[in-house]
Amino acid sequence: MKYTLIDENGQYALILRGESMTQYAVVSGLDKKAGSWDWTCCYYDFGKFSSLTKAEALFRALDYYLMRTNEKHISWARMSEIATVLKDGLIEDDEEEACRYMADVAELSDTEAEYFGLDMEQYREATGEDADTPTAPSSTGGDYGPAHPWDAPGMSASDFI
Length: 161
Fold this sequence. Notes:
single chain, alpha+beta, four-stranded antiparallel β-sheet, 5 helices, 39% helix
């Protein structure tokens, strides 16, 4: 079969294959002289007869290839699973606080929040609430930080002059 070698590591190889070269595949036991391999681990079609773009097919094949050849690689599917379990745990504890945390700390976009199945109305409310909260220290916010120490109870600017 016609193929173009993209990368090879140990027994695995990432190739672009086929007569029309519209498949990325991870194969095992590549024999370059014979132009064959022992078996195909996975393949991803792209082009007009596939729902995947060329970039998406390459990403999926590369993700699988790295999972097989790099012991430190965590696949996209596994990372998504881990993130979803963590999100579910946060929501189980306190949904409102979880939405606020995801908006403030993780800074999820709407697309990302939708991917994780968040209640978008509640998520947008959590995002909107934070816009009303002052970020600079102030006496009205109860923060007598270094920016305005004279705002602390019993203190005035003359105490610092």
